[in-house]
Amino acid sequence: MARRRKGRAIDGILLLDKPLEISSNQALQKVKRAFLAAKAGHTGALDPLATGMLPVCLGEATKFSQFLLDADKTYIVTAKLGVRTTTSDADGEVVDTREVNVTEQQLYDACETFKGPIKQVPSMFSALKHQGKPLYHYARQGIVIEREARDITIFSLSITRFEGDEVDMEVHCSKGTYIRSLVDDLGQLLGCCAYVSKLHRTRVADYPSDKMVSFEMLEELLEKAQAEQIPLTDILDPLLIPMDSAVKSLPSVSLTPEARDSFLHGQPVTYQSESRITHGTLVRTYCTQDNVFLGVSEIDNSNYAAPKRVVVFNSPA
């Protein structure tokens, strides 16, 4: 007999403002407990020393987390010049120190070389897997694994402050970008070393930063709910963003109620769309009757919407 899942069947995305000195998984578990959710997952880890936007998917929204993992992200980072560490951040051991003789023009010129499509070698202290284990597992044992450079894109890199041995930058980048590696590479190019002393993620995809929710806010609302006997559905659930927001970059199609029922059972169906969609395109899928989000489908060679990620409803859609 299958074990019954504990918790509420709550679906949606919380934009958590992750604080310092807590792992992304620890943050995820705290959100899951606060919402009494049966299922939760995050969409791209932030290191304990990093803060900022961490979208936490609850319930059926976890099926669409990959789309946020693949999304562009924006960071504000402070680089400390003159020092290189094993982890390229403040947590690592110092492996090199050099005098900082960098002009503002040299800094700007160096930053220009990183803009656009580039190759980046991931840090040994990353979560990338090698033979089933994250690279940091080997790094902590002093084992260095050869890593291939990966294609990334730095859409923008702007310097917002340069004082002494500190540089503040705003970086808009593609998936797979390691800001620690970017800062370490910048330090090597400048000839003075550098590491990340502060890192704050301000944006994932198009989610606005003013929608972020802190743990303090969650705790205050939970205390209010308990004191005034307010249901979680009334006090916490309004903080959630609809799960189809994770795939809003995809074109959308609509299904009739009849086609919807077949779609929810995994069958390719005919669809309605305001524009022509080419075969192989992933699309957001809704029902014409009530505009309920049904999942993500792919337009197949027969011009049908074939289910790829389907929302499971606790009651009829």
Keywords:
single chain, 317 residues, alpha+beta, Pseudouridine synthase, Archaeosine Trna-guanine Transglycosylase, Chain: A, domain 4, 3 domains, four-stranded mixed β-sheet, 22% helix, tRNA processing, tRNA pseudouridine synthase B, isomerase, PUA-like_sf
Q: In words, what does this structure look like?
A:
- The protein has helices at 24-35, 65-69, 104-112, 135-139, 179-190, 215-228, 232-235, 257-264; strands spanning 12-18, 40-42, 50-58, 73-81, 83-85, 94-97, 116-120, 129-130, 133-134, 150-163, 166-173, 194-204, 252-255, 282-287, 293-299, 305-310.
- The longest helix is centred in the last third of the chain and has 14 residues, at 215-228.
- The radius of gyration is 23 Å and the shape is globular.
- With 317 residues, the chain is an alpha+beta fold.
- 22% of the residues lie in helices and 32% in strands.
- It is built from eight helices and 16 strands.
- The protein folds into three domains: 12-70 and 207-241, Pseudouridine synthase; 73-204, 2-Layer Sandwich (Pseudouridine synthase), CATH 3.30.2350.10; 250-310, Archaeosine Trna-guanine Transglycosylase, Chain: A, domain 4, CATH 2.30.130.
- The strands form four sheets. Strands 1, 2, 3, 4, 7, 10, 11 and 12 form an eight-stranded mixed beta sheet that branches. The chain has a four-stranded mixed beta sheet with strand order 13-14-15-16.
- This is tRNA pseudouridine synthase B.
- Its EC number is 5.4.99.25.
- Residues 251-311 form the tRNA pseudouridine synthase II TruB subfamily 1 C-terminal domain.
- One of its GO terms (biological process) is mRNA pseudouridine synthesis.
